Structure formats: structure tokens, C-alpha cells
TrEMBL record:
Assembly and binders: Component of the replication restart primosome.
Protein name per Swiss-Prot or TrEMBL: Replication restart protein PriA
Cited NCBIfam families: priA (TIGR00595), PRK05580.1-4 (NF004067)
GO MF term (any one): zinc ion binding
Lineage: Bacteria, Pseudomonadati, Pseudomonadota, Betaproteobacteria, Nitrosomonadales
Family to which this protein belongs: Belongs to the helicase family. PriA subfamily.
Gene Ontology terms: cellular component: primosome complex
Gene3D superfamilies: P-loop containing nucleotide triphosphate hydrolases (3.40.50.300), PriA, 3(prime) DNA-binding domain (3.40.1440.60)
PANTHER family to which the protein is assigned, alphabetical: PRIMOSOMAL PROTEIN N (PTHR30580)
Superkingdom in the source lineage: Bacteria
Binding site for Zn(2+) 2: 441, 444, 459, 462
Record organism: Gallionella capsiferriformans (strain ES-2)
Residue ranges of every copy of the Helicase ATP-binding domain listed in the record: 205-372
DNA sequence: AGCACGCCGACT
DNA sequence: GTCGGCGTGCTC
């Protein structure tokens, strides 16, 4: 009989000891009694003795052996995360698994159909010329057997053609185990010729052996994706696995389709929260068995099992969505770097506007800087960026006359325009012209946003909504004025001004279900839209070939935000949305409405000068002792009673000061949204000049924090926070 | 986090 | 007398 130490999904920093009679392997899932119920846990350690009194230790109920154990490498990665982010080990390990592995429901692997050419299949010429789809499919099947998904990348009507080919006796279906590592006869990409610059990047990465972190700084349109394709191709040829991390879920289906089409016969799986439990399990297991050569996923896929991992790519590495904002508050980019180090493989961080953290590391030599400076399509030029001084121009409901005229030109030329405004709704606040009443949310410190579509005032923080009042709730005055504009108002203005134009609004309200956004995208690509109005949803994603004008409406607020990263974020957002304008044959133009056209941020943006911008900002950050020159942790608390929240944080601060470590402990301050859903929120910032010092402090300070908090408070510790 | 145990106010 | 309020404490 031996003791196993098991990780359980409970908010306690420890493992739990159980006895087992049968042979048990590290990383295996077990059902154990816990309190009055049973839980699924993962065996983290096998030991001979326990520190606990014998009578307290219960036996394992059952060992689950219908799935492969978690590798000790992944367990080590999860242990590291638990320690680095100071989060309970069980709540780190268990939620990293697909939901099906967190339950005791039996796991079965269903076989799937693949298709292959029969011996008697006719040469390609015998298939009628007009049956292009069938011909493409036969060509692909001649390389190696494929599944339906792969065939669909060469033939839209794959299902129907397949039926025809099977009935003709040329193709047959056969069962395969999706977890089996099929021999990869052909995994080649439909590779395009690389520019010299791109080739140099590919060479630099492929010539590395062992761990190395590369920062690929490539302007929009410089062909980063083609570099990824070539690198992935190399890895697949040697039988390795690639992890490709991408920011958002709404980007994944297109990207998946794109990479499938580039690697028609490789096994690619996606991992993101949009998958069903069964799909997620299957994809995870395909990664675990090595059957999947490419794993494409959002931040959670950084915890996928990858036995043959040979390369990690983090695309849009600056994107804030790589940071999880609840539970284990990890940065998938940073975890990926640790993982690459652990596995001894290269990692490539790609971005047109790298985070200052990564850029700084590339400048000081911790990472290797790689650059793509030219647009891959030789004659494609960067868009011309111009400013409209919003205080010196005639404005129609927040849109300048100049911009409206330019939109009109695009309409007559059959080109598209995009108006970018980072606010949804009609107006961000409603005001009484008589007494100055503002549409405050009764539950939050924020304002309720006016939505004219359903005549409601809605709080974007807590979801509370009311009907738009006809009289001022304070003074009964009948005149209430919408202040500022959001996407709906801009859309309204455009409809009035261009009644014939086809206008499309793209924001979270207009794309309720995820199918809609897909439909909208194809409408835009088919040039069935003249003007798009939208939030940052429009900044990301694939190219819109007919788009030649981007208008940006009053983005200034980020320039005087209390968040020191706001300007960094705005710059990359504007760079990204600007990059949507213009193609090889049609130059793009960007018009920015601002009160501060001389602000250094806009100057650098106009010159497409990321280097200059980064240099000036890094200098400021260094002077002010901000990241990346300092390392931070944020303790947050929220609760119903203001005094409790502040008392807790002040006690925590006092406890920290007493430890007398070389860290700076700032004051307890209200969170940027001081009240949300009736909960008072405040925070305490800790800063040190090295990761090591910060971690040393947290190791002593953090364990006591839970005892200080009453159960009425919700607290969290955020390491390397992005939000303030 | 749950979910027990435990000690004080208004009810048949 | 008891039903139930939510404060404290433990989970291998």
C-alpha cells in the first residue's frame, strides 16, 4: 500500500493524501472521497509516508484508466504556474484539463472515417473536366488517405462528390483511430516563394537548436503568416508538433480554415472555449497522442499535452487577451516562453506592434529580434495617415465634414470605408440640460449607455437596464441630451447622409450570435457593403480587399487615461485598424479625428514608426520606474461594505510592510471602476525591480492573505497585471 | 469554495 | 420549548 498526493479543484494551496492498493501512475486521474462527496483528482506525487495522522487518510475510490496519464512535463509546467501566480495547485491543474477529463464519465474514443483511392481507380483524365471538385479530391487522395474535413479544403462540395466517387467504386471509406499517429507521407505546405527578408527569418529560427525566444517584428502585410507556414512545414517534415497561439476565439475558425488549406493533408486541431466538450477532449487527445501536427488555439491551449513539441508560435503577442482575467491569472505568452524553455524548443513571438515587455527584451538581447520591414507584395504601400483637428472643423454629430466627403468619394468609386469608434450603443451617457443629471448606474460607478434601438439605458458593466426616461428623474425637465457618440449614433448619421449606401454596423450588439459575424464578414469581402461602422472587432481579422478609407473617431481618451498602458494599447490598435486600408492596386488612406494631432503618439503613427514610439515610451517608463523596468503584483478586493474592503487591503499592506523586503508597496486605492454590481472594489499595488525579489516577497506575504480576509470579501492576486 | 457545527432571537 | 439566523473552521 502506498500514498498518493492528489490535486483537487478546491481553493486550498495543498495536495491531498490518499492510500491506494493498486498500481498507480503519476498524472493518472483518480476518484477520491472528499468531505461528504467524491471528486476527480490528478495524482501529482507517489510517496511512502504521509505527514498526516493515519486515521485521517482515506483510500482512493477508483483509478480512472480510460485516458492517458498527464505527462510529468505538463505537471511540472502546471506546478510552475501555481507557484509563479500564487494560485492553489488543484485549481491550476484541474481546470487546465478539458471538462470531460474533469468528470468521472467514461471516456471512449470513437473511430472516424477516412477515405482512400481503390486500386481500380481510374487515372485522373477519366473524370470529366467539369467535375473539378472531384478531380481535386482524387488528386489529394492520390497523395494519402484523408478525412472529410481535409477534402473540404480542396472541394466545397466534398460530401456530394465523395458519394459519387464511392458509388463509382473508386474510393472507399475505412475506419481509423483519430488518436493514431498516421504516417505523414505528405505534409507539405502550398508554399509561396519567400522574400529575402522572410527567408532570413525562417533560417534564423530553423538554425536554432534548443530554446531561443525570437521576436518577429513585422509590419502589417509584411507576410508574417507566410513565415509561420514555412516554419510549421519544417517541423511537420521532421515529425514534430507545432503550437500556434492566437488571441481571440472569433479569429480561430478563419485561421483554422486558412492553415488547413495551406497544409491540406496534415492533422490540425483547434483548441478554444467555443468547442463542445467532446470536441475539446478529442482535440486534446489528438495533441496528446501526437496525432495532431498543428495545434491552433487560444490561451488555454498553452496547457495542451504536446509530446513532440518542436516549435511554439505566438501570433499578435502584444494582445491582452493572452492574459486570463480570472481564476489562474496567467499570461499564455509568458507560460509559452517557460514551456519552450522547459522543452528546449524555439519560440517565435510575432507582432506588428510588440508589447513593450517583449520589445525591451529583444533590444537588450534576452530575445533575438527579427524584422520584416517590407510589404510582401512589392507594390503595396502603407496607408497615408492624416489628421482632422476636431476643434477646428465643422462636425456633424461627431463626424467631420471632411471625413463625410471622403466617404462619399469612396462610394462613387465603388470602394469601401470603415469608421472605427471604440464605443457601442448610441451615446455613452444621457444628460439633463436643466439640472445636469447624468445617467449613472445604480449598481456601478459607471454611466448607463443609451441604446436607441430598444430605447434603453444599459450599464455595460453589470447589465442593469431601464427604459429611457421621458423626463429628467431629478427635476422633471423634459429635455434629455445624449452626450458623445457610439457606433449606433455614427450609423444613424451615415444613414441620414448616405441614404442609398449599404451600411453595416459591427459591434457586440449587432453580432449577438457568432454566426452573424461570419455572415457579415463574407458580405464585406463580397463588396456588398459600402460603409462599415464598428468597434475593435473590425480591427482584427482578415483583409477587406475593397477597403481604402479608414476613419477613426476621437480616440483621444486613452491619452489621458490613468492606465499607463493605455497609449501603448491605442497605438497598436490604431496601427492594426490602419493596416486594413489599401491594397496593392488601391492606396489606402486613414483619417484620424483628434484634438491633439501633435501628440507624439500620433506623430509616430503617421510615420508608421513603431521603433520611435517604443523608444520614447520605454524612456518614459524607465524614468517613471514602470514595467518593463519594474515587476508588479496587484492585490484586488471587492465586497459589499466599503470599510471591510479597505480594512482588509490596509491590513494586507501593513503585513507586507512589516516583512521589510526591498519592494515598494503603494497605497490602497479604488479600482478603475470603484463600484461594480454594488460591490466596492479597491486594489493594492506591489512593485519590485526584479522578478526574483517580487517572488521572494510574495512567497512570504501571500500565504497569510487568505486569513486576513473575511468570507464576505472576494480577493485575488494578479501577477504581472495588465489592467489597472 | 462548500458545508458542517454552534450558539442566540421570534414563533406554534 | 424549537426553527433558523449566519459566524467560525475544516477538508487528505
Amino acid at each position: 500500500m502506498q500514498i498518493v498526493r492528489v490535486a483537487l479543484d478546491v481553493p486550498l494551496p495543498t495536495l491531498f493524501d490518499y492510500t491506494v492498493d493498486d498500481a498507480v501512475v503519476l498524472g493518472q486521474r483518480v476518484i477520491v472521497p472528499f468531505r461528504r462527496s467524491q471528486l476527480v483528482g490528478v495524482v501529482m506525487e507517489c510517496v511512502m509516508f504521509s505527514e498526516l495522522a493515519v486515521e485521517k487518510i482515506k483510500p482512493v475510490v477508483r483509478i480512472l484508466s480510460d485516458s492517458e496519464p498527464i505527462s510529468s512535463k505538463l505537471l511540472a509546467l502546471l506546478r510552475f504556474c501555481s507557484e509563479y501566480y500564487h494560485y492553489p495547485i488543484g485549481q491550476t491543474v484541474i481546470p487546465a484539463l478539458p471538462a470531460r477529463l474533469r468528470s468521472d464519465k467514461p471516456i471512449t474514443v470513437k473511430h472516424e472515417y477516412h477515405y482512400r483511392l481503390l486500386d481500380g481507380a481510374p487515372p485522373i483524365d477519366l473524370i470529366p473536366q467539369r467535375k473539378t471538385a472531384a478531380r481535386n479530391m482524387v488528386k489529394m487522395l492520390a497523395l494519402q488517405p484523408c478525412n472529410l474535413q481535409q477534402l473540404k479544403t480542396v472541394a466545397l462540395t466534398a460530401s456530394a462528390q465523395l458519394k459519387w466517387l464511392i458509388e463509382a467504386g473508386w474510393v472507399e471509406a475505412f475506419e481509423v483511430n483519430p488518436l493514431a499517429c498516421l504516417p505523414r507521407m505528405h505534409c507539405f505546405a502550398n508554399a509561396h516563394k519567400l522574400t529575402d527578408e522572410q527567408q532570413q527569418v525562417v533560417d534564423a529560427v530553423t538554425q536554432t537548436s534548443g530554446y531561443r525566444c525570437f521576436l518577429l517584428h513585422g509590419i502589417t502585410g509584411s507576410g508574417k503568416t507566410e513565415v509561420y507556414v514555412h516554419l510549421i512545414n519544417r517541423v511537420l517534415q521532421t515529425g514534430g508538433q507545432v503550437l500556434l497561439l492566437v488571441p481571440e476565439i472569433n479569429l480561430t475558425p478563419q485561421l483554422e480554415h486558412y492553415f488547413l488549406s495551406r497544409f491540406p493533408v496534415a492533422t490540425l486541431v483547434s483548441l478554444h472555449s467555443g468547442l463542445s466538450e467532446n470536441e475539446r477532449l478529442k482535440h486534446w487527445q489528438q495533441a496528446q497522442s501526437g496525432a495532431a501536427g498543428i495545434v491552433l488555439g487560444t490561451r488555454l491551449s498553452v496547457f495542451a499535452e504536446l509530446p513532440k513539441l518542436s516549435l511554439i508560435i505566438v501570433d499578435e503577442e502584444h494582445d491582452a487577451s493572452f492574459k486570463q482575467q480570472d481564476g489562474l491569472r496567467y499570461s499564455a505568452r509568458d507560460v509559452a516562453i517557460f514551456r519552450a524553455k522547459q522543452c528546449g524548443v524555439p519560440i517565435l513571438l510575432g507582432s506588428a506592434t510588440p508589447s513593450f515587455e517583449s520589445y525591451h527584451n529583444a533590444l537588450n538581447g534576452r530575445y533575438e529580434m527579427l524584422k520584416l520591414t517590407g510589404r510582401a507584395l512589392a507594390d503595396a504601400n502603407l496607408p497615408e495617415i492624416k489628421f482632422i483637428h476636431s476643434k477646428q472643423t465643422v462636425m456633424v454629430d461627431g463626424i467631420s465634414e471632411v471625413l463625410l466627403r471622403e466617404i462619399a468619394h469612396r462610394i462613387t468609386r465603388g470602394e469601401q470605408s470603415l469608421l472605427f469608434i471604440n464605443r457601442r450603443g448610441y451615446a455613452p451617457v444621457l444628460m439633463c440640460t436643466e439640472c445636469g443629471w447624468l445617467s449613472d448606474c445604480k449598481n456601478c460607478a459607471g454611466k448607463m449607455v443609451l441604446h436607441t434601438k430598444d430605447q434603453r439605458l444599459r450599464c455595460h458593466h453589470c447589465g442593469y437596464q431601464i427604459h429611457v426616461p421621458t423626463l429628467c428623474p431629478e427635476c422633471r425637465h423634459p429635455e434629455l441630451l445624449p452626450v458623445g457618440s457610439g457606433t449606433q449614433r455614427v450609423e444613424r448619421v451615415l444613414i441620414d447622409r448616405f441614404p442609398e449606401a449599404r451600411i453595416l454596423r459591427v459591434d457586440r450588439d449587432s453580432t449577438r450570435n457568432k454566426r452573424t459575424w461570419e455572415a457579415m464578414r463574407s458580405k464585406i469581402t463580397a463588396n456588398e457593403v459600402d460603409i462599415m461602422v464598428g468597434t475593435q472587432m473590425l480591427a482584427k481579422g482578415h483583409d477587406f480587399p475593397a477597403l481604402t478609407l479608414v476613419g477613426i473617431l476621437n480616440p483621444d481618451s486613452a491619452l489621458y487615461s490613468s492606465d499607463f498602458r493605455a497609449a501603448e494599447k491605442l497605438f497598436s490598435q490604431l496601427m492594426q485598424v490602419s493596416g486594413r486600408a489599401g491594397r496593392a492596386d488601391k492606396p489606402g488612406e486613414v483619417l484620424i479625428q483628434t484634438e491633439f494631432p501633435d501628440h507624439p503618439m500620433y506623430r509616430c503613427l503617421q510615420q508608421h514608426d513603431f521603433e520611435g514610439w517604443a523608444a520614447s515610451q520605454l524612456a518614459e517608463r524607465e524614468m517613471a520606474d514602470f514595467p518593463p523596468f519594474a515587476f508588479q503584483a496587484m492585490l484586488r478586493a471587492e465586497g459589499l461594505v466599503e470599510a471591510d474592503v479597505y480594512a482588509y487591503l490596509n491590513m494586507a499592506k501593513l503585513a507586507g510592510v512589516k516583512l521589510n523586503h526591498p519592494v515598494e508597496i503603494f497605497g490602497v486605492v479604488p479600482a478603475s471602476l470603484a463600484r461594480r454590481a454594488n460591490h466596492v472594489r479597491a486594489q493594492l499595488l506591489i512593485q519590485a525591480n526584479s522578478r526574483r525579489v517580487l517572488q521572494q516577497f510574495l512567497r512570504v506575504w501571500q500565504p497569510g492573505l487568505a486569513d486576513l480576509a473575511s468570507n464576505k470579501l472576494r480577493c485575488s492576486l494578479d501577477i504581472d497585471p495588465l489592467e489597472f
